[in-house]
Write a structure and sequence with these properties.
With about 160 residues, the protein is mainly alpha-helical. It has seven helices and no strands.
């Protein structure tokens, strides 16, 4: 096992084996704890190996490239973009705004949002798609002349 993994991977694998042992509810069923531990370690290392084979190789230099070189100007631009996004989200219809916030801020699935808002998953998905389209139109430079959201037709109704 040591030939294929770096030291940090070995530490991570050992920690994963330890955590799985802690979470295991089969303690009373295990007749040979040492064999059980070794088999678990083999399984975890196999999982790590298969995940590693799908990962793209990278050099150690990539960490150095992650240094944030933003200055005050880019910080101001980021704050302006955040305020524009906040304004655009607040201009969405109430249900679409709620769905968007539940999805992104709380990380809820469409089903969980539908349950919380007493609606269907289909309505949640539709409102989310419409909210994306509205935000894209408002936030894309030159796409909309005024800052208000595009007016929906009467047939679409209030969301």
């Amino acid at each position: 096992m040591r030939a294929r993994y770096c030291a940090s991977d070995l530490d991570d694998i050992a920690q994963e084996v330890f955590l799985r042992m802690l979470r295991s509810d089969r303690a009373k069923l295990v007749t040979n704890p040492q064999a059980y531990l070794f088999k678990m370690a083999v399984n975890v290392s196999t999982e790590w190996s298969s995940r590693a084979s799908r990962r793209l190789p990278h050099s150690d230099q990539w960490l150095a490239d992650l240094v944030d070189e933003s200055g005050p100007q880019s910080e101001v631009e980021r704050e302006v973009m955040e305020s524009e996004l906040e304004r655009a989200v607040e201009s969405l219809p109430p249900r679409a705004r709620s769905i968007l916030k539940l999805h992104y801020l709380e990380g809820l699935t469409h089903e969980a949002i539908a349950s919380r808002l007493s609606t269907t998953r289909r309505v949640v998905k539709r409102d989310l798609i419409r909210a994306y389209a509205d935000l894209r139109e408002v936030l894309t430079p030159g796409a909309a002349t005024d800052s208000a959201l595009p007016a929906r037709t009467a047939a679409e109704g209030s969301r």
